[in-house]
Amino acid sequence: MISKATLRQRTAGFTLIEMIVVIVILSVLASIAAPGWLAFANRQRAIAARDQVLQELRFTQAQAKRTREDQTLVLDPTADPPTITSPGSSAQPLGDGRTGLIQLQSSVTEIHFDKDGNLVDEEGNPPADNLFPIKIVVTAPPTTGAKRCVVVETLLGATRTAGDSECN
Prior knowledge:
The protein has one domain: minor pseudopilin epsh fold, CATH 3.55.40. The protein contains two helices and nine strands, in the order ααβββββββββ. It has helices spanning 4-11, 16-67, and strands at residues 71-76, 83-85, 92-93, 103-106, 110-113, 119-120, 134-140, 146-152, 159-163. The radius of gyration is 26 Å and the shape is elongated.
């Protein structure tokens, strides 16, 4: 005769079919959530890099006003990851420093500020009107991802941020 305790031991736990069903359900849920999570992560990566560019741009302008000397911000879109160099510092990678995650595009590689914080060209003269607006575009992942940009609109260095279609 089989006791009740023995029956409970035999029926305790999960069957192989139950485990397979749970694994299939979890796999379906993960495949639905993964693309959304990757898109979110790429947007956040682009926003962080754009904010880094904006911060360094404003720092360079403020440094020019504070020291009463011309200052230059250098962008290197060819590096992997792209780098940005502000006055008195070495080249800093955009984003978290991992390669292949961020692309930087800009019509200029150097942005010069005079002692008053105004934009100037390499010789210290006001830049040509056709230079504006200057768009510094960050894309994560490169070429196909979320676009975020910093737009320098005037000789006085007025900046704004934008996203996606405004960055084209």
